[in-house]
Amino acid sequence: MKKSIRIVLSIMVLCVFVSGFPVYAASQTVSVKIAEFPVTLNGVQVGNDYFNWLTEEKGLSGHYAQYPLLVYKDITYFPMTWSYSELLNLNTSWTQEKGLVIGQGDSDKWKGFNYDTRNEKNRINQSASIVNSPVTVNGKSIDNSKEPYPLIFFRDITYFPLTWRFAVDEFGWKYSYTAKDGLQIDANNAFVYHEPTPEPAWIGANVIYHVYIKDDLKVWQEFPGRSKGMGDMFISKGSKVEQVGHNGLDKFGLFDPPEDYGYFRVQNGWVYTIYSDLREGSLSSGTPSTLLPVRVNIQTMQFENLK
Question: Is-contact 265 274, C-beta < 8 A?
Answer without folding.
Answer: no
